Amino acid sequence: MIKLKEVIKNKSQWIELNTYIELIENNQDENPNIALDGAKSLLETVSKTILEDKGIEYVHDENISKLIKTVFDTIHIFTLLEARDSQSAKAILGAFSTITKHIGEFRNRHGFFSHGQDIQSNKFDRYLVELVISSADLVTSFLITAHSENLKDRV
After folding, report:
1. pLDDT tens digit string along 19-30?
2. H-type helices in 28-82, by residue range?
3. I need a surface site. Which of 34, 51, 139, 140 has the fewest CB within 10 A?
4. How many CA atoms lie within 13 A of 121 on its CB side?
5. Residues contacting 80, CB < 8 A, separation 6+
6. What is the DSSP letter of 12?
7. 81 in helix, strand or coil?
8. What is the C-alpha radius of gyration for the chain, rounded to an integer number of angstroms?
9. pLDDT tens, 40-62?
């Protein structure tokens, strides 16, 4: 979670995310199901924090893809882009909404904490957990950076 660590390094509001980062990194290899839970929770926490900061109401138990889409819709950087670039950027964000949807589905089926698992159940695939963690790192880093820029009244 190199990107996220760098993004939050000097942002005191986000310092508590280090707990999620440690949980994810410390469990990635030996307990990937726990890392999967942590990655999904990280996405939810960042999303809900941004929406709270902006005073935007949301359904607290909303599924992750709808929550992420709500946050993406609040990002004002698209007003600075030409129409064609804005469409492409929104398509990328749409793809990330789909990715987060599937992260939520993985977590619901395989997460260690989510719905309780048989202690002897299979570990989540190590390659897929890397993909989930990298995706969560990228999305949360982008959201925090965009949110920080919005708070500066970017024009």
Report:
1. 999 999 999 999
2. 32-53, 64-73
3. 51
4. 16
5. 154
6. G
7. coil
8. 16
9. 999 999 999 999 999 999 998 88
